[in-house]
Amino acid sequence: MDTLTLLQHYWWLLISLLGASLVFLLFVQGGQGLIYRIGRSEAERERLVAALGHKWELTFTMLVTFGGAFFASFPLFYTVSFGGAFYVWMAILFLFVIQAVAYEYRLKPANLLGTRVFDLFLQLNGLLGPQLLGTAVSTLFTGAPFTVDRLNLARVGGGGEVVIAQWTTPWYGLDALASTRNVALGLAVALLARMLGCQYFLNTVDDGTLVERARRRMLPAAVGFLLLFLYWFVRLLAAEGWTAGAGGVIVPEAYKYLHNLVEMPAVALLLLAGVASLLVSMWRGWRGRRDALWFGGAGTVLAVMALLLLAGWNDTAYYPSTAELQSSLTIRNSSSGEFTLRVMSWVSLLIPFVALYIRCVWLALRRQR
Amino acid sequence: MSSDYLQTVDWSRAQFAMTAVYHWLFVPLTLGLSVLIAIMETRYVRTGDAFWRRTTRFWMRLFGINFAIGIATGIILEFEFGTNWSNYSHFVGDIFGAPLAIEGIMAFFMESTFIAVMFFGWDRVSKRFHLAATWLTALGANLSAVWILVANSWMQYPVGCTFDLATVRNEMSSFREVACSPVAVNKIFHTVSSSFTLAALFVVGVSAWYLLRRREQRMARQSIALASLFGAVCALLTAVTGHRSGAIIARVQPMKLAAMEGLYRGGEGLPLTVVGLLRPAGGEENGDPFLFRIGVPRLLSFMSFNDPNAYVPGIDELIEGDSVRGMLPVAEKIARGRRVIDSLARYREALRTGDEAAKAGIEALFDPATAEGREFLREYYAYFGYGYLESPRDVVPDVPLLFYSFRVMVGAGMLFLLLLAVVWLCNRCGRLAGQRWLLRTAVWVVPLAWIASQAGWAVAEVGRQPWVVQDLMPVTVAASKIPSSSVSVTFFLFLALFTVLLAAEIGIMLRQISIGPEPEN
Predict the structure, then answer these.
(1) Subunit contact B82:A57, Cβ cutoff 8 A
(2) Exposed/middle/buried for B243, CB within 10 Å: 0-12, 13-18, 19+?
(3) Number of other CB atoms surrounding residue A355 within 10 Å
(4) Chain A residues whose beta carbon lies within 8 Å of the beta carbon of residue B388
(5) To the nearest whole angstrom, how far is the Cα of A71 from the nearest Cα of chain B?
(6) Domain total of chain A
(7) 3-class secondary structure, A43
(8) Which of A45, A201, B131, B396 is deepest in the core (most CB within 10 A)?
């Protein structure tokens, strides 16, 4: 494996890790969606919001870092997906903007909109944010209708034809909602976030009534998540994928993702371990154990990471074009150059330190002096 | 060009400008206030005086209100590079993406992790841990600014990169040149120090209001003592780096400098216009472009080249060129840019037809490893973006907007320096409370700090037009191909949202100032 190929795989691994961590941190959104279900009085809701308020910025930051890292390592994806699936990304951004101010402003006097509206912002972000993110992620497997031609830049005076990545339908991302697979993964991610949100409350809130309600709420979310994920995963294994053959030519391959699992046993093991950990978290959550969150978190990170590795490694087209096969994106044809990836790899050595101080602060804030 | 695409470009510019304007209403206060809060808390930890804890917590409350909306408006900017400017993202993503990713890994996590300790950790962690968290939040916020300014500076002065024909994009060749270019280093110091000045003016203004109301006298006086000194030093640094900016712009973006000055005809030993009123028609061909002006002799030449007799080119010379001074006419640059674009078109055709000879010939042309390639890249590719322009006059940015913005920024900056120094001196002599006119001035100057800050960005960004990346890519080919109606709808959606949130923020902030710090004890 040459250096560039190694770096491309390394950066896809990091993107997968960041994406997986983002899905885990969506427990904040899951929790927000449950504020009015679990908290039945103002005081109870305050306790739940206060518990989430310590963590919402981590989710927000992870989303921004995920975007920045994707831009730096695979800029062509940024170009194609963000510049094409315009409506979906704008909707996601809108939902995260309204979340950012809600925590700080909801109880402040003279906040113009009133507590109820800011609570509604939290609810909207909690319910729709994970759904849309999950749907967007699913298009990494199902594809999108775009074409890429870098030499469109040679078209002087051609107006919009100079744009290298073009969407071929007028739906600009809304087309993803027409696929049951995309919608199923979106719903699965939303239910997973809800399940993790319950586990976070079990872990953090010192109130027997709230904990009991969170425990009861966790089960339907967990069952719903499992069923939808199973449906999506079976469809994935049965689906045709796109693979980069000799000279980078993209060709369809039946059962591509099943082949990936067989050809990358380490990734299969990662996925198995993740699913097992998630099942353990459901069991421990149902028993009311505080540590359910850690099993749920580890399971989410491992499973999502494995799925994203399935999407990008083993010469798989991680963003297939349903409009023109050869426009599909692989980690080879969409990455930054070797120099940039090398520079960024040095920077990535900071990630363990970042994880370490986040962990230290998390534990420090749990201590009551 | 298709009119809908050009409308998309215009709406995308409007959307990005609107988001940036809103974002920049909140960021400078976050940058400076975080440092002032950290200094106040350091005093608390060193002295153990509960007064400083109470003072820190008060300013921290205002910081939190501002911080939340700063984050909210910031997330959009990063993603708009993709949603609205997808051609740009491709063309320079290899270089531009790196600072954004570093910002996330190095700065955002530091900021978002330790801010939780800042706000929720008072009774949960030790004093020293809390203080460290406050400083790390300030460091994270400012590191974030550093990396985004590195990215922005690269758009003004694209260095440390080469063009790669295989990927049809610019690729990074030197991280040091990108991160440490003179434009980047100066812009970082200038922007950060001006943000610190803005925050200092905010603290001084709010404290002056308390003094006028005869409330919270000790907190107000101590806050003024700290913020006025801090602000005066930062305002001085802003002035020094501003002067340096002028010298750098004269070399790397001479058209921006000429437009800032309303200078259509250049010359030697030119004056700097201090105050002036431009004719609506503009342009030297319409006679003197000024209805009136007051200038300082030779100051423009000195500001630009540290030489009172130096030659400074005007807009017309920059367009027409000057062979004696080695300035190419814009028409020639356009021709050179079109030759590069034509080479790309021929390359595309060669790939389509499988013409290996033609393909190899064009690849050699772009190969930096050969003398021919280096010459082509230096003499032709350096003007690539000009190839998309329709007329030489397209290189002229909005002269009146730049001219007036520059004067607002500089004039306000001088006023801030004077005001902060006088406030500091009066406070030190114990005479501030009696100078009610000065206190009122300090209160009323607060909004001017934001106007000056926005004017500074207008100078930087409007002055970059028509380029999204100086000389390499004009904005007219940088946008995504999405319907203009989609961009306009989201423009109004976010405009409404940000306006409502701004109104909420101001309302909350004013109420919190009115409430004041938490009760003693």
Answers:
(1) no
(2) middle
(3) 13
(4) 156, 162
(5) 5
(6) 1
(7) helix
(8) A201
Token digits for B471?
């000389």
H or E element at residue A330: strand A329-330
Q: Does any CB of chain A come closer than 8 Å to the CB of residue B79?
A: yes
> pLDDT, tens digit, for every residue of A77-107?
999 999 999 999 999 999 999 998 999 999 9
Return the DSSP state at B189. H
Do residues B322 and B266 make contact, with C-beta atoms less than 8 angstroms apart?
no
- How far apart CA B469 and CA B160 sit, in angstroms, is 13
Rounded average pLDDT over A286-309 = 97
Question: Cβ neighbours of residue A63 under 8 Å, at least 6 residues apart?
Answer: A22, A96, B75
User: How close A66 comes to chain B (CA, Å)?
Assistant: 8
A78 near B83, Cβ under 8 Å?
no
pTM for the whole thing? 0.95
Rg of chain B over CA atoms, in angstroms?
A: 25
Cα angle value B503/B76/A114 (rounded, 5°): 30
Q: Computed from CA positions of residues B13, B14, B17, B20, in that sequence, does the dihedral angle turn out positive or negative?
A: negative
Q: What is the DSSP letter of A296?
A: H
Q: Is the ipTM of this complex over 0.85?
A: yes
**Domain segments of chain B: what residues?**
3-257+393-515, 267-312
Domain of residue A173 covers 3-366
Q: Please tell me the distance in Å from B117's CA to the nearest CA on chain A.
A: 7
Using the Cβ of B66 and the Cβ atoms of chain A, whether some distance falls under 8 Å is answered with no
Q: Which pLDDT tens digit goes with each residue over B243-298?
A: 999 999 999 999 999 999 999 999 999 999 999 999 887 665 667 889 999 999 99
Q: Which SS3 state, helix, strand or coil, does residue B154 take?
A: helix
